[in-house]
Amino acid sequence: LPGHVLHDGVEPVSDLAAAVSGAALVFVAVPSAAVEAVAVEIAPHLAPDTCLLSTTKGLKPDPHATDGAFLTMSQLLARHCCGARIGVLSGPNIAEEIAGGSFTGTVVASPDEALRDFVQRTVHSRSFRVYSNPDMQGVELAGALKNVYAIAAGMATALGAGQNTSAMLVTRGLGEMSRLAARLGADPMTFLGLAGVGDLMVTCTSPLSRNFALGRAVGEGLGLEAAQEKLGRLAEGVNT
């Protein structure tokens, strides 16, 4: 985030073990392709009952499945960090706007109510409000799936689609992702909240959205690899 200075209380370190050892709350904020490797590396250094919170909005194919099944990031963390208490953080949270102090809401989701309360108390601020939801599966799937529609929305914008088309795409996308999540055991009502329609709306319209920007570059005629290179940042929707 160029132009934004780290808070004085934040100490950047390159030693992963030192970063997590003894921590009561650990945020895992790495690309989905790296979450499993990071989970394996940090597991021996986590204190018992550490709150482990994923902020990664992606999915990973299950290497042990033959039917195309996938794993969420919380499932990967639970698989390798057995003693940790797992949760996820997701919502319409464009980093540049948060760093700039824009009023922002997010959702902490976990079946662990005490974890949710702890995260709410810890990370809320004057401009950042944290809402609580026990439906971890729904919140996590919403955060991952909306990136697919954001790429499509970027392509539609580049191709000159009107507001009617964009509204149809976003609305039908919301219906599709909520039906898929419900089939996987999530609460479809989750998709009417910040983690669902809120995140979908901002990701499908904001020029600061990585997935929207990638889709727009593809819609303008670039190949996928060239569009990714132009973006210069990870757009999780490609893998999802």
The low-confidence runs, each spanning 5 or more residues with pLDDT under 50, are none
CA radius of gyration is 18 Å
Q: Determine the number of helices (DSSP H or I, runs of at least 4 residues).
A: 10
Principal-axis shape equals: globular
Overall pLDDT level: 94
The SS-based structural class is alpha/beta
Multimerization status: single chain
Helix content: 40-55%
Share of β-strand residues: 5-15%
Order of helices and strands: HEHEEEHEHEHEHHHHH
Q: Tally the beta strands.
A: 7
- The strand order across the widest sheet is 1-2-5-6-7
Structure description:
The mean pLDDT is 94. The strands form two sheets. A five-stranded mixed β-sheet has the order 1-2-5-6-7, with helices on both faces. It has a two-stranded antiparallel sheet with strand order 3-4. The relative contact order is 0.12. The two termini are 24 Å apart. The chain contains ten helices and seven strands. Strand 3 (59-61) and strand 4 (70-72) form a beta hairpin. The protein has helices at residues 16-20, 32-42, 73-80, 95-99, 113-123, 136-158, 163-183, 194-203, 210-219, 224-231; strands spanning 25-28, 51-54, 59-61, 70-72, 85-90, 104-109, 128-133. It is globular. The protein is of the alpha/beta class and 240 residues long. Helix 6 (136-158) runs parallel beside helix 9 (210-219) and helix 9 (210-219) crosses helix 10.
